[in-house]
Design brief:
This protein is an alpha+beta fold and 626 residues long. Helices cover 32% and strands 24% of the residues.
């Protein structure tokens, strides 16, 4: 059956004389693609229902609710951060039944706010945004008796703010032409979404360009003059997103604009544009607004309700207290409450897979740092906070992104992760040099005993480049990529092999060896493993270790070991190399000794250089336009 909702819902018809209203979320009952589980949008409590993108047909004697990831309205976030004082659920109906407006509190306990006996016509149920400050959301439930009820053209609306804002999307891509075109086609497939956009800017930094793909012309035709395609040399994710931000802020023609970053390889839920853009239009003060990440391979799993970084530990990805952690948001807790983000939590930063940045922030704090890759989003959010601009990760605004656990840590990007973490910590923390030195030393030891020699070399180079100072960013990171890949190329464990083609491993040498529990006395275990590796007194000659068990204390028990790649496509072969252990150990010790002595001075150099590094003039130079 075709979807009955044919007209636009972003600008609904309203009775004469009624004040203008803004659609801040559409009532969707199914995903943009068949592979997206319908339970993320509407769940059938009992009976039967037909769930389609823009309509819900509830059979007789049935009960359906939208207390789901995409079905809820995040009332707590709207009360805390926006100027809206009331929200209204609106929909058209055919048939008979009841529509209930339901709400939850901080702990997920539900209550009923209003009931509408529906027939042919329109439903309008309003709720004041005055009892949700610490948490809670809104949703609707449909209950039928002897007849079915069709609900369509559903939407959540608020009074339109006095001042409107523009929204432009920036997509950064590098040699993912098919993925990028698929994202653009999804983004532009729904007129409601396209109608909210001033521009879509695609920054293509690859050699496999997206304008060679069949769908490119279709996207360009849908957008017309609002579409800008900008090929440029590869300056990494930082350089790609910043180029689009620069073009919108400097040449977009309006000052009151939000720029929505979007990854090229996501599975796009176009509704994310509606929810982020309208939230950004209604916030009381300039705010970074981020979408949550859902796992692409496990589409009902959310990565985190909100995240923060521990800067002095050089680590990010920590789940904010009270937030939903990586889990299935279609499941229920033992007390019967839904695994949804009821409690309002604060975010330290938000990822750039889909993130709204106000132009006012650029004028206050400058552009992102030219970090090439990794931690650019973290640094910008912490810098924004220092300039009075908070970060909000908005529940119910989500896109699907490649699962992080399926990405291997042993890759060239680890250099950027470490170097840029040090830079971010230098800029936005007290930067306790002794503590940071200990963190780096612990990482170096783990890499060495686990025979991750390429990772150890990457860490040493990251420390040296941090100490070298801001000049390492003069080219935007291009030289660093080549240098780190060269460092890693001499270490065999950095290459993945098909398990049946693993060189030097016979089929009887690949028996699975399971890991024991994590040690409690890690310092003593580390010293023991160093001796075992250095002297060749390892308990196991060869074996296979799964990706989830490749802990340093376990892998270091082997003379030779095949470790399953996180992507599950093959194995990486680690071999004990006493010469590499000694050489990298000496290099690492020298680098850390220098860091302990010079780290504070280097951190101050980074702080002094930050204004120039983030200025428009520096980025114009990197873009080759100044």
């Amino acid at each position: 059956m075709t979807d009955v909702a044919a007209r636009s819902t972003t600008r609904p018809e309203r009775p004469a004389g009624e004040a203008a209203r803004l659609v801040v979320a559409r009532g969707l009952f199914a995903g943009p693609l068949p592979e997206v589980p319908e339970e993320l949008y509407a769940e059938v409590h009992h009976g039967r229902a037909e769930r389609r993108r823009h309509h819900l047909r509830v059979a007789a004697d049935s009960h359906v609710g939208t207390n789901t990831y995409f079905g809820r309205f995040p009332a707590s976030y709207w009360q805390r951060w926006t100027t809206a004082r009331e929200v209204r659920f609106e929909a058209h109906t055919r048939g008979t039944g009841r529509v209930l407006l339901r709400a939850s509190d901080t702990n997920g306990v539900p209550r009923t706010l209003a009931v509408h006996d529906a027939g042919p016509g329109e439903v309008r149920l309003s709720a004041p945004l005055d009892r949700f400050l610490d948490g809670g959301g809104l949703w609707v439930e449909v209950v039928t008796g002897d007849d079915e009820l069709l609900v369509h053209d559903a939407r959540w609306t608020v009074a339109a703010p006095a001042a409107d804002r523009g929204t432009s999307v920036v997509v950064c891509t590098h040699n993912r032409a098919d993925d990028c075109v698929a994202t653009l086609r999804a983004l532009t497939a729904e007129p409601d979404v396209v109608g909210l956009l001033d521009a879509v800017v695609v920054v293509d930094q690859g050699t496999d360009r997206i304008d060679t793909r069949e769908g490119f012309a279709d996207v360009a035709a849908r957008l017309g003059e609002r579409f800008r395609y900008l090929p440029q040399p590869n300056l990494g994710g930082s350089g790609g997103f910043t180029r689009g931000l620069y073009e919108v802020v400097e040449h977009g023609g309006r000052t009151d604009v939000d720029v929505l970053f979007m990854d090229d390889d996501i599975r796009c839920e176009p509704e994310v544009v509606v929810r982020l853009a309208t939230f950004g239009r209604c916030v009381a003060d300039p705010t970074i607004v981020g979408a949550q990440m859902l796992n692409l391979l496990h589409p009902t799993q959310v990565l985190a309700g909100a995240e923060y970084a521990v800067l002095t530990d050089l680590s990010n990805g920590h789940v904010s207290p009270g937030a939903v952690g990586e889990s299935d948001v279609t499941t229920f807790f033992a007390d019967g409450t839904k695994n949804v983000q009821d409690r309002r939590v604060d975010a330290g930063y938000t990822g750039w897979w889909s993130c709204l940045i106000p132009a006012e922030l650029v004028r206050r704090a400058g552009y992102p740092l030219p970090l090439f890759f990794q931690w650019d989003d973290v640094e910008y959010c912490y810098r924004a906070r220092a300039h009075g601009v908070p970060t909000v990760t908005l529940p119910g605004a989500g896109v699907w992104h490649a699962d992080f656990p399926w990405k291997d840590w042993d890759d060239w990007h680890r250099y950027f992760n470490l170097r840029n973490a040090m830079i971010t910590a230098a800029l936005h923390s007290p930067f306790p040099v002794r503590h940071v030195t200990a963190v780096l030393g612990d990482l170096l030891g783990r890499y060495l005993v686990a025979m991750n020699y390429g990772l150890a070399a990457s860490l040493v180079r990251a420390v040296e480049d941090f100490l070298a100072g801001p000049e390492v960013l003069d080219d935007g990171g291009v030289a660093a990529v080549a240098a780190v890949r060269g460092l890693r190329a001499v270490h065999g464990e950095t290459v993945a092999h098909r398990v049946t083609d693993a060189p030097g491993f016979g089929p009887t040498e690949m028996e699975i060896v399971r890991s024991g529990p994590a040690p409690s006395l890690t310092g003593l275990v580390m010293a023991k493993r160093v001796l075992q590796q250095g002297l060749g007194r390892t308990p196991f000659h060869a074996g296979l270790v799964g990706a989830g068990e490749a802990h340093w204390w376990h892998v270091s028990l082997f003379d030779r070991v095949a470790v399953t790649d996180a992507g599950q496509g093959g194995v990486r072969l680690r071999r004990r190399d006493p010469a590499a252990l000694r050489t990298l150990g000496r290099q690492g010790a020298r680098a850390l000794w220098r860091f302990a002595r010079e780290g504070g001075t280097a951190a101050q150099r980074w702080r002094d250089a930050a204004p120039a590094l983030t200025a428009a003039d520096n980025w114009r130079r990197l873009f080759g336009s100044g």
